[in-house]
Amino acid sequence: MRILRYLGPRLLLAAITLTGVAVLVFISLRLIPGGFADIVLGPFVTPESRAILTERFGLDEPGWVQFFKWFWALLGGDFGVSLVTQQSVIAELLRRAPVTGELALLSLFFALAVGLPLGVASAAATARGGGRIGRTIGALGASVPDFVLGSLFIFVFSVWSLGLKAGGYTPFFEDPIENLLGMVLPAVTLGVFGMALILRTTRDAVLRVLTEGHVTAAVARGETPRQILRHHVLRNASVLILTVSATYFGYLLGGAVIVEVLFSVPGVGFYIYSALLNRDYAVVQGGVLFVAVIFVLLNMLVDLLYVVIDPRIGAKRG
Amino acid sequence: MSFIGRTRGFLAAAGVSAFLLGSTSGLAMAESTITWGKPAEITFGDVHVAGTASSWDVFQLVYETLLTTDETLALKPGLAESWEQTSPTTYVFTLRENAAFSNGRRVEPADVVGSFNRILDPATASYWAKQFGTVKEVKALDERRVQVELEEPHTAFLPATAHISAAIIPAKELLAGEFDPVTEMMGTGPFMVVEHKQDESWTFAANPHYWREGYPLADRLYAPIIPDEAARMAALRDGRIDYTFFGNPDIELLFARDANVTVIAQETTNYYRVDVNALNPERPFHDKRVRQAMDLALDRNAIRELVFAGSAPVDFPVPRAFGLEACKSNPAYALPRNERLEKARALLAEAGTPAPEVAIMATTANPLYARIAQVMQQSMNEAGFETSIEQVPVADWLQRVFTDADFDLSVSWLAGYTDPTMVISWWNPKFAVWNLAFFEDVPALDTALNDVKKMPAGADRDAKLDEICAMIGDGANLLALVNKVDYVAYRNDQIEVRIDPKTGSSNMFQHIGEFNSLKQ
Amino acid sequence: MVAALTSLWRRDRLSALAFAILALLVFLGVFGPWLPLGDATQVAAGPRLSPPTWAFPMGTDELGRSFLPRVVEGIRYTFLLATVAVIITAILGTLLGMLAATVGGFLDMVVARVADVLFAFPALLAGLLVAAVVGPGAASVITVICIATLPLFMRVVRSASLSLAERGFVIAAQVAGATTWRVILRHILPNVMSVAIIQITYALSIAMIIESALSFLGLGAQPPRASLGSLLQVSSVYLTIAPWLVGFAGLTLSLAIVCVNLLGDSLRDAVEPLPGRTLT
Questions:
Q1: How many other CB atoms sit within 10 Å of the CB of residue B496?
Q2: Do C129 and A25 touch (CB under 8 A)?
Q3: Distance CA A14, CA A23 (A)
Q4: C125 and A225 in contact by Cβ < 8 A?
Q5: Residue from A32, A181, A258, A264 whose CB has the most chain B CBs within 10 Å, to mutate
Q6: Which residues share a beta bridge with B68?
């Protein structure tokens, strides 16, 4: 019952948000000049052939009819078929989701593995009056656009392989080692920005917590710096770090388009991007909504995690 | 005792599995795969409908046409082993005896009848139907022969059967509902589709029923889709792909230091072109003099030098690849540039618009378009134009140019096909239809274009082509710029290729069956 | 001004350096067209893809244009778009955030939901969609930047205003009969200003990244105009034979963003010092 009372309003809000996304993507797609018939027939489109094609794919109906048909099917879990290939959109999305998921997880892992310790170190240095190196790394990491870094990586690693693969994708279950060798560069390319984000967040959060009373009390009690860091500082800073990580992870799920294009990684973003260029309506609609669903679910999961980390939040919010 | 026995059994099992492993990996090594870095995904899977080169290059692996062309653009046998013209309007094709679809069924005349009728059926919405001329009847004569009868003579009919949009599909399976040409591909070509991961890759296997004994040499063809030029270069460098192609002429320069990459320039009958919007009375190019001034002001040599590093020759409405003199004497080509600029300024003054404001539209599909536009901009401005550039996605461009006629100039390319009369027939908007929105109809030109199609190749036809060229130059409604050379790059340590120096049907990889993997 | 800079230099050399570089870039961007650097659009001004020489200090590009004036033009265009977009975001975001917090109820819910929807929309894909609807060019770049930076801006300002709205002086003003607008402008705005300014610097750095990414996909600056992103896109193909092109364009872009970020950090440190403490 309490779970219901906790989840109920959140699910409702999620439903409203997702409906908003669905309406928005549908309307904006219909506003785009250039239709599917243009792409299929190229310049050779004639009014007659356009009429035949639009009718064949149900694009001749009024916009709102198309929307409700699509939305109704969506509620039943039917994302429709790609206009270009006539293949199921959801099957393609599910095939690609693990690729994007792996890339996002690896990037997040890189960001946390590097950003977290650097952030703590930078906070400690700042507390002693230094911290310039941490600041510079943080600012630098957030400043190199991913396509610049990606292009550089591709150039360097295609000339001197150095054991890594600059592009190309091998499914994990086919050959895990090849897969990882190919994923390192795109993951690092994406992860550098996240690293900077985590570094700065950690530094700020730690600095903030350090001035709180319970830390002072712990110092007074004579606990070792390591104990204080683990029991008081990181535990309290983790709420903020978690929020930022979740937002960043959500961004990675749809925002990796350029890196996917550069490294030929067959992810969700690349799929939606090329569908948009091809005016493959069903794919763009389904794809954007798919990413939004995962994003919203992720945020709900993070909300739940808050409660686990810090029960006070749960009491306050629930 | 029992312990030893068990051990022996285990060892034996290990031996067997080791043998099995050894033999399967041996098989995998015997199977040769060639890898093609495909620059763009297909736009539509229906071979009779899709009008884009990125779809054609997949169709050309799977499907075949009755005839095809050699490196001199002359017709040669394809799926038909011979053909003859039995009257000015009648053609008879004899099919290869051993030609079969990839499901093993022999090709029958009924497949040709079904395929051609499907192309001609308006419900199919095939853009290629018109290139056949006006077909009266397609019928099977016997087990191996098909006859096509036209309403009136049409010289380009045979070349039209050599373009992949006239592919022969399994009509029997189509009728039986066992084959859907929109979602699947089944042809008589050297390869067949095994797997397609959209926007990711195509995997083809050798068609076991391919008529040419011992071909294709490769057992498999894997084609990852790599749209980014730099990524494609990287893939070739690190050996992930064996061959690919580029439009950027600097590719030779970019691979100059890679000894294991060879770049072959393939001349085509295709050329970069400019569409001019003549039909909107609000826009400057409604006035023919302004169009002529623009044509004169264009510096095709500068485009050739700056955008194509000198490697793509200037091209003409009747493609230079056919080796005719047609169009070469038009003022926009023949006069020196200074004189052309003077004439252009005079024409603009005469039209009362010494400095017309115009926009050049270039799509993002090919980075060269924007570069061509920038050189055009500079050369036009020298004659007084005030030119701007709009870079738009392909779908927007298609609608704005061909449907809404909401543009001044548009840069793209035109396929020249395999007969000099095929591409210029687009200068008749009633025939072309696709340019009705912006092309000013010239009745005299239409008549001449209709006539030339009925004339057999020879001196008379060449004279007619000269006459047509003069009218094309006068209208300045659709301009040829420079040849569209394609650059095939391959790893000479990984693959043996055969690429013709010239192709007429956008059939870059016509000899794909002879591509041989050198990888051990 | 000079005194302020010297004191900044003494206190925090990194920020002072960042400020100086940024000032230089802004100067180049604003006055670039009047500086004797050469013509940014003159095709065939020199040989194609020439390395840096006296005549062409940054070399020439693929059409034989001098690269130096193009980079300066890129700075101008990238800064201009980013600034305009961030100003729009700042005004909209601050107003909506404050309104939502002060008025509450239905409006607050609508604002929160809109922020959620925008937030759940993958930013770059939203951008591509907008660029497709509006058509490539300045307008769509600005719209995309706004869509990407607005949700965070609204949330930050809203939560800052929320804590203010419960404070005594705001409640007192409301009790005294001040209109909502008066409360917002007189009491809340001055107090959320510092939060907003910090957000502006971060939005500015994100804006520059987005502008360059869109230009990289061919949806940003329209040729022959250059932005730092479009310069990078064109020159990245020539990395093997003309690495100086990517070098100059990439360094300039990264330098600009680093400086904005460093400046944002030091602004924040000034507004809300986090001294921390040692653990012994």
A1: 14
A2: yes
A3: 14
A4: no
A5: A264
A6: B76
The length of chain A in residues reads: 318
Strand B145-150 to B90-95 pairing = antiparallel
Q: What are the φ/ψ torsions at residue B97 (nearest 5 degrees)?
A: -70, -35
Chain B CA closest to residue A89: B198
Of C185, C160, C183, C161, the closest CA to residue C173 belongs to: C183
Contact between chains at B378 and C239 (C-beta distance less than 8 A): no
Instruction: Please give the single-letter amino acid code of residue C159.
Output: S
Is there a contact between A276 and C246 if contact means CB atoms under 8 Å apart?
Answer: no
Please give the residue that has the higher pLDDT: either A251 or C53.
C53
Helix, strand, coil percent values for chain B (each to nearest 5):
40, 20, 40
Residue of chain A nearest C130, judged by CA positions: A28
> Can you spell out the DSSP letters for C218-263?
T-SSPTTS--HHHHHHHHHTTTTT-HHHHHHHHHHHHHHHHHHHHH
Instruction: Please answer whether residues A126 and A203 qualify as being in contact, where contact means their C-beta atoms are separated by less than 8 angstroms.
Output: yes
Distance from CA of B166 to the nearest CA of C (A): 34
Between the CA of residue B9 and those of B17, B20, B23, what are the distances in Å? 12, 16, 21
Contact A263, A167 (CB under 8 A): yes
Q: How far is B8 from chain A (nearest CA, A)?
A: 32
Chains adjacent to C (≥3 CB pairs closer than 8 angstroms): A, B
CB pairs under 8 A between A and C: 164
From the list C43, C136, C219, the residue facing B374 with the nearest CB is C43
DSSP label at residue C57: T
User: Cβ–Cβ of A279/B395 closer than 8 Å?
Assistant: yes
Selected residue of A12, A13, A17 to mutate for chain C interface (largest C Cβ count, 10 A): A17
C57: number of Cβ within 10 Å: 15
Name the neighbours of A, counting chains with at least 3 Cβ pairs within 8 A.
Answer: B, C
Half-sphere exposure of B430 (CA within 13 A, CB side): 9
With cut-offs at 50, 70 and 90, classify the pLDDT of residue B19.
very low
Residue in C with minimal Cα distance to B364: C218
Token representation of residue A224: 């070792």
Mind listing the pLDDT tens digit for each residue in C186-236? 778 887 887 788 788 888 988 998 888 888 877 788 888 889 988 988 888
Alpha-carbon distances, residue A255 vs A125, A250, B229, C127, C238 (angstroms): 33, 8, 21, 10, 26
B64 and B78 in contact (C-beta within 8 Å)?
yes
Residue A167 Rama label (left phi>0; alpha psi -120 to 50; beta) = left
Which of A11, A12, A16, A21 has the highest number of chain C CBs within 10 A, making it the mutation to test binding with C?
A21
Closest chain A CA to residue B399: A34
Which chains does chain B touch, 3 or more C-beta pairs < 8 A?
Answer: A, C
For residue B391, count other CB atoms closer than 10 A to its CB.
24
Q: How many helices (H) and strands (E) does chain B have?
A: 17, 21
Determine if the peptide bond prior to A176 is cis (ω within 30°). Answer: no
For the ranges A254-263, B250-259, B347-356, the lowest mean pLDDT is seen at A254-263
Q: Report d(CA B403, CA B435) in Å as an integer.
A: 9
**CB atoms A143 and C257 under 8 Å:** yes
Give the gap in angstroms from C-alpha A190 to the nearest C-alpha of chain C.
13
Give the pLDDT score at B6: 37
Question: How crowded is residue B136: how many other Cβ atoms within 10 Å of its Cβ?
Answer: 13
What ipTM describes this predicted complex? 0.83
A315: buried, middle or exposed (CB in 10 Å: 19+, 13-18, 0-12)?
Answer: exposed
User: Helical H runs in C32-137?
Assistant: 67-103, 105-120, 123-134
Residue A68, chain B, CB below 8 Å: the answer is no
Which residues in chain A have Cβ-Cβ distances shorter than 8 Å to C217? 257-258
Say which amino acid occupies C10: R
- pTM value is 0.86
Q: Please name the amino acid found at residue C96.
A: L
